[in-house]
Design brief:
about 550 residues, Neuraminidase, five-stranded mixed β-sheet, about 40% strand, disordered N terminus
Length: about 550
């Protein structure tokens, strides 16, 4: 179906005016009777108007950075002929936090000064700063046929924060964890209307983001692999990705892994369900990986596991479906926190005297006698993660299924307290909620494992943001986002904040006296929150609504 292109206004737009689509005026998309949905309509800013001043040309050019259609055709209309094919809008995105200052610096030069709060590089990697920094952009202009045009301009585009959210979308690139056990998501941002599939593949052939690229992840693509044919053709939902000859040096298993990375990454693009790999436009015959290969399944259950009335199991419609062989032992411990692993059919439970492991058919065993332990983790390889709340070099312990204990360095700094931690589906990205003297912090790091899957070390910490109030709990929402709960100790007023893995955040309501947060399946709607009065809540609109269920302890699952 053809798309309808609508010009919003007749004159040049100022940068501050292009952050949203007007809902009044001479032109309204709602008045156009075409039979097309909103998804079929591209809204474009206008090109240069006759007689525009130098300042208006620069402002209009920057404003046109919101429209990536046809390789930024509108923005290029502001450029002099010799710059049209040279300017590279895809090199970077500067996201501004305030209004720009536009001023002449000579008879044919304009300086555009803008406070920048975040940047996106050519491979979609998003980075933000705690405060805006002024960035100075210089433009040179010449006259062509009596009209001003830009003859020199910096590569990249400048967008306001709202405009960035409208023009760009988040996509997950998938790499492998070390040992090729799991697919690890790396969030990137690309213009929604600008050959997204090509940008995804080009970025996938590069290294992952710095914090994932410290031994925790690998790529199946040989070094130097490049995309040979663009744009990527798509037929019947299959993207035909043509690469350079370097991939021919890889064996069948490596090629199957490349195909898995491509399919997982490209399937987020509308109209693409899978991928094929070719070299010199000759398709490679690639046998699929076995069924036990990496998948994107979360491993979570859609039901919630609780301890209530000395019974442990799944709660549904006010009834507990007990987990036989585990329920009575878990209840007898009177635990403070629980982690249930369905894959290993066991529960890790903390209480006043340490960490206990409950296995079906065996007596519960005390596996970590340290005091002040936080909720544990049982990872996909069966290793049990145990940590004290107070920061120290040996705070984290990794316990194998046969009871061997290894230390994991996790220094958080003086006077820092670890409130909770949780591994992502990929067994590689670790979420940490930390309380410091100046407030809560939300951190991510990557786990490097050895050939036996034993966690060996943690990479650099990525700080997603600061929190106001006392940190309560945190959970993974999905591959791209986490949720965090804080509260005011005096009033009991809580707040839930959702962060994406780049640090962009949004509010998810204000529950009262929150105690525990867990994720199930289905993203944000799958979150469940336990209050300190034993009631379980779920997200509804901009707030939290009671489910009608109760629990003494709400278990995290994997």
């Amino acid at each position: 179906m053809k798309k309808l292109v609508v010009s919003l206004l007749a004159g040049a737009l100022l940068l501050s005016s292009c952050t949203s689509i007007p809902n009044s005026g001479d032109v309204q998309s709602a008045e156009i009777d075409t039979g097309l949905s909103n998804a079929d309509v591209d809204f474009l800013p206008p090109g240069p108007s006759a007689g525009a001043t130098q300042e208006e040309i620069v402002q209009g050019f920057v404003a046109a950075g919101t429209a990536a259609q046809e390789n930024y055709r509108v923005a290029r209309s502001y450029l002099a002929a010799e710059l049209v094919d040279v300017w590279n809008p895809n090199l970077s995105v500067a996201i501004r936090a305030g209004e720009p200052v536009v001023s002449p610096s000579s008879a044919t030069s304009i300086v555009y000064t803008v406070p920048v709060i975040a940047n996106v590089d050519e491979f979609g990697r998003y980075s933000s700063a705690t405060s805006a920094t002024d960035q100075r952009l210089e433009f040179e202009l010449v006259q062509e046929s009596g009209e001003w045009r830009i003859i020199a301009a910096p590569d990249g585009v400048v967008l306001s924060e709202p405009a960035f959210g409208e023009a760009f979308s988040s996509y997950r690139l998938y790499y492998f964890s070390s040992g090729y056990r799991d697919l690890v998501a790396d969030d990137r941002w690309f213009a929604s209307r600008g050959e997204v599939s090509t940008k995804i593949v080009r970025a996938l052939l590069e290294e992952p983001s710095f914090w994932l690229n410290q031994g925790a992840t690998v790529s199946a693509f040989p070094e130097g692999s490049q995309l040979a044919l663009t744009p990527i053709p798509v037929a019947d939902g299959v993207a035909q990705v043509d690469l350079t000859t370097s991939v021919l040096s890889a064996n069948e298993v490596a090629r199957a892994r490349m195909l898995l990375q491509l399919s997982a990454s490209l399937s987020q693009v509308q109209g693409i369900s899978s991928a094929r790999l070719s070299v010199n436009q000759v398709e490679l015959v690639i046998p699929p990986l076995d069924e036990e290969g990496p998948s994107l399944a979360s491993g979570r259950d859609g039901r919630i596991a609780v301890l209530l009335d000395r019974r442990f199991g799944y709660v549904q419609a006010g009834r507990i479906e007990q987990l036989e062989g585990l329920s009575s032992q878990v209840a007898s411990l009177i635990p403070r926190s629980l982690f249930y692993s369905a894959a290993f059919d066991q529960v890790a439970a903390t209480r006043f005297d340490g960490l206990w492991l409950v296995r079906e058919g065996e007596a519960a065993s005390l596996i970590d006698e340290r005091p002040d332990l936080i909720r544990p983790i049982i990872d996909s390889c069966g290793y049990i993660w145990s940590s004290t709340a107070l920061s120290s070099p040996d705070m984290a312990a990794i316990i194998s299924q046969n009871g061997q204990v290894s230390s994991l360095s996790m220094e958080l700094g003086d006077e820092a307290e670890l409130v909770s931690f949780e591994l992502a589906r990929d067994n590689t990205r670790l979420l940490l909620l930390v309380q410091t003297a100046t407030g809560g912090r939300v951190l991510l790091t990557a786990v490097e494992r050895n050939e036996d899957c034993l966690p060996q070390s943690l990479g650099d910490f990525v700080d997603l943001g600061s929190l106001t109030g006392s940190a309560v709990d945190a959970a993974w929402v999905d591959d791209s986002s986490v949720a965090v709960v804080v509260d005011d100790a005096q009033t009991g007023a809580g707040a839930v904040i959702v962060f994406d893995t780049n640090g962009r955040s949004s509010s998810l309501g204000r529950p009262t006296r929150p105690a525990t947060l867990v994720g199930t399946i289905g993203g944000v709607p799958g979150l469940r929150l336990l209050s300190d009065d034993g009631l379980i809540y779920q997200p509804r609109g901009n707030g939290w609504q009671g489910t009608g269920e109760r629990a003494s302890v709400l278990a995290t699952q994997r």
